[in-house]
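FW: tagging you since you asked about this chain on Friday. Here's the raw sequence from the shared folder, copied in full. Didn't touch anything.
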Amino acid sequence: HRRHPDHRTVSLTIKAPPRTPGRGLRHTASTAPTMTPTSSSSVAANTRAALAHTGSVNGKGTGIAALGLGAVLLLGACAAPSDTESIREAGAPAPAASQGLRDCSDVPKEPKANLSHCDLIGSDLSGAKLWAANLTGANLFRADLTGADLTRADLSGAYLSWADLRGASLGGANLSGANLSGANLSGANLSGASLTGASLTGATWIDGRMCGHGSSGMCR
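HL: got it, structure written out here
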């Protein structure tokens, strides 16, 4: 009610526009799916689930609900660490030891030893004399090879990610196709070594510099 200047009371009635059939929200008993985004892949999966849920909402409500859910997913994705950051934090994942690798705990770690496709994850081989040894396809993830003698050793296809090779002798060694991402090669001797197709992303090179992303065959 509004009082007119001549003290008369004027009644104003405001009517809401008629609701178009089918344009309002339809209440259902379903509950929006629980979403805990942890990576880009899970965010994608949660987005699909969210969009499927908005199928129970009609008209303008669809856009509002989808926009709100999209904002929640975006905020969750920003708050969660990416897969790449997680790997950088914990180190590159090691392949499962049970997949085609053999237990070589009883094999002597000596010159010309046959250690091909051995599970040597995290092994302490510092100062080991392994010249001319066969280490093809061996898993040496995070192995300690500081000061080891691997002269003319065959390490083709070996998994040496995050291995410590500081001061190791790798002269004439075959490292073709080996994975050396994140490995520390500071002060190592690589004279005459073959690095064809070897992955060196994130590795510390013999002169102490960090190899860039995509480094293959040589440190870039």
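FW: The beta strands are 2-3, 9-10.
HL: agreed, and Residues 9-14, 20-44, 50-91 have pLDDT under 50 and may be disordered.
FW: great, closing this out.
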